[in-house]
Amino acid sequence: MKRFIAAAFASGALFGVGLALSGMTDARRILGFLDVACDFDPTLAFVLGGAVATTLLLFRPVLRRGRPLFADDFPLSQLRQVDSRLLAGAALFGIGWGLAGYCPGPALAALGVGSSEAAWFVPAMVAGIVLQRLEEKAQWRAASHPPPA
Amino acid sequence: MSTTWLMALAGGVLIGLAATLLLWLNGRIAGVSGILAGVVYPRRGELAWRLAFLAGLVLSGGASIALLPGIATPREGFPPLLLVAAGLLVGFGSSLGNGCTSGHGVCGLGRLSLRSIVAVPTFMATAVATTWIVRHAGGWA
Fold it and tell me: Which stretches within B44-79 are classed as H helix?
């Protein structure tokens, strides 16, 4: 259990160094990439390219081992279907990302250096997660207990 | 290639290695929004590692921004109202779509998940459109 938690801390820490080194914690750089209309800043493409090249290369041999070192299995998402929830969720996420230039990882890293923008963004992000769960619960309730006609 | 781009590439590789480390050792996906959602709604035995990952990310991310040479400090002065709206959308959207830039982008593309292959261009497209509207059509920020 201890090594399981230490491994998670190490991964988060390495993730944080990568985000800072790559410049992704600077929202101006993110908007500079997303703003294709002027002063296009391709940095984000290098970051995503480097990250995805690494996972494309290394995930396959890791998953082929059958089980992770410190756990019994890989509890990966079993969702396979492209549905309206995925599309709507991704679309809304992108609107929020493009609005201010923060996605969850960089916002949390910026919080660690005392960014006041992250101090606004991160609690709102948590509230967004709570709102989504509440909405989902309400929908589930409406579906299982339809109001009398 | 400029130093910025080399640092971006190196940083990206570190992010990919961090995700590989978590999968190889613990069998978990390094999707930041999913890990955070699992802290807000914890399941038995799944809380401690998530807190440890997020603590590592916040502490080491913050320290790296402060201490590594040539790292820009985070932007200041963006309108709080837009930050709150953006945070709500990012939280709601990543929870509904089961992933963000790290979960769908770095990890999902790495294991060639069809859902991620659809999600990444979708959020890229709405992000580009939103940035364009905010900066050019609306000129709000």
Answer: 48-67
